[in-house]
Every structure is written in C-alpha cells, then in structure tokens.
Design a protein that fits this description.
Blueprint (H helix, E strand, L loop, with lengths): L9 H7 L4 H10 L9 E9 L9 E4 L3 H9 L2 E4 L3 E10 L4 E12 L2 E13 L8 E4 L3 E2 L4 H4 L2 E9 L5 E12 L3
Parallel strand pairs: 3-10
Antiparallel strand pairs: 1-2, 1-4, 4-7, 4-8, 5-6, 5-9, 9-10
Length: 179
C-alpha cells in the first residue's frame, strides 16, 4: 500500500530545510554544498622507489598537455628490476566520492603486458582545500635485455563505479640499468 509523494526537484527539496539553521551548518561542514564541474580533479601521477637517488623525483603533471606530449617522445626512465610505487595526487571538489579507482594498462609494441586497478577509497572535499595523495601497492619493474629494448606505453584513467571518467592520460616509460 505504499503511495509515493509528489515529485519534487532538487531545488524544491533544498528549500524545504532552508530555515533549519542546525541542518545548514551540518551541510556546510561536509563541504558538499553547491559547486559544478567535475567531482574529482587529478593533479599528478608520481613514482616512488627506495632505490631512487636522493633528491630525484619522478612526477607527471597530467594537466600540462605539453609535458604529456613530451613524454611520448622522451619517456620516463625506470631502473629495471626495482620495486616502485605509483601514486596520484587529486582534489575532491564539491561532492563526496566513493567507488573511484585508478586503472592503468601497460602495452609494449601494442601488446598488453600489464593491467593494474587500485581503489582510491572514499573522500569528501578537504576542509583546508589541500589535495589528497594516494600511494598504490608496490610493483616490480621488469628486468633483462628484452625488457630494456623498446618503450612501454601506459594508458591511465581515474573512473568511478558509474563509469564517469574524471581523468584519462597516456605516458611512456623505458627501462634502463640506472635511474
């Protein structure tokens, strides 16, 4: 015997509690009021390894189209046979997110050699506006003469369970004997 009430727009629902001061303070504390544009802005991808020389940092600003384009011609050099972590830095803009994951597919000479999928977790907008950083599980870079010949192309994306893509970019790396 359930009878749904009349349909209302989001604006009409927002007006229903406009005079509830306590509820409005609580909503403001969540950092989710208003806002347009993407829920998530991915700022950079980085690689960290205990074997990296002191002071060396490998980071890609994914919002810099010129830098991404340059990576196709001048790939990142990763030392063969070392353990490293991939990580991303991102901001949650105006909504609470859940079910968001980072996926990358690695190809060499057009053949898929690896696929990694990592959960970001659940986040709300940072109260201070600072970006979040997520380090993923460690991986080991391939090694050997065959692994060193040629470069690897990586297609990365940040996507949620509903299929909404927040960022998508491509980068290239090459294995070497030294960082």
């Amino acid at each position: 015997g359930y009878k749904p009430g009349e349909k209302k727009s989001a604006q009409e629902y927002a007006q229903l509690d406009a005079n509830d001061e306590s509820l409005n303070r609580w909503k403001a504390s969540l950092g989710t009021r208003g806002g347009s544009g993407p829920k998530v802005t991915v700022l950079s991808l980085f690689l960290v390894s205990p074997s990296l020389p002191a002071g060396k940092k490998i980071s890609i600003n994914i919002n810099d189209e010129a830098a991404l384009s340059d990576l196709k011609k001048n790939p990142i050099h990763i030392k063969e046979g070392v353990e490293y972590n991939v990580g991303i830095t991102f901001k949650v803009n105006h909504s609470i997110i859940s079910g968001v994951r980072y996926i990358h597919v690695v190809k060499r000479a057009g053949v898929k050699v690896d696929k990694a999928e990592q959960m970001l977790g659940s986040y709300g907008p940072s109260p201070s506006g600072e970006p979040y950083t997520k380090n993923f599980e460690p991986e080991e870079s391939p090694s050997g003469l065959l692994a060193r010949s040629g470069s690897y192309t990586v297609k990365s994306r940040v996507i949620d369970d509903d299929g909404e893509i927040y960022a998508e970019w491509e980068w290239t790396f090459k294995l070497t004997k030294e960082w």
